[in-house]
Amino acid sequence: MTRAVVLAAANSGAGKTTLTLGLLRALKNRGINVRAAKSGPDYIDPAFHAVACGHPSINLDAWAMTPAAIRGYATSQQGDLLIVEGAMGVLDAGADNKGSVADLAQILGVPIVMVLDIAKQAQSAALSLAGLTALRPDIPIAGTILNRAGSAKHVKMAKGAIERSGFNVLGHVQRNNNFTLPERHLGLVQAAENKLLDEYLDQLADEIEKTIDVEGILACATPLITPTDVAQKLPPLGQRISVASDLAFSFIYPHLLADWHSQGASIHTFSPLNDEGPAPDADAVFLPGGYPELHAQKLANAVNFKKSMNTAAQNHALIYGECGGFMVLGNGLIDAKGETHEMLGFLPLTTSFETRKLSLGYRRLTPCANAFFQTPLLAHEFHYSTIAHQGDAQPLFKARDATHTDLPDMGLQNGRILGSYAHIIAPNVGER
Question: Can you tell me the mean pLDDT for 151-175?
Answer without folding.
Answer: 94
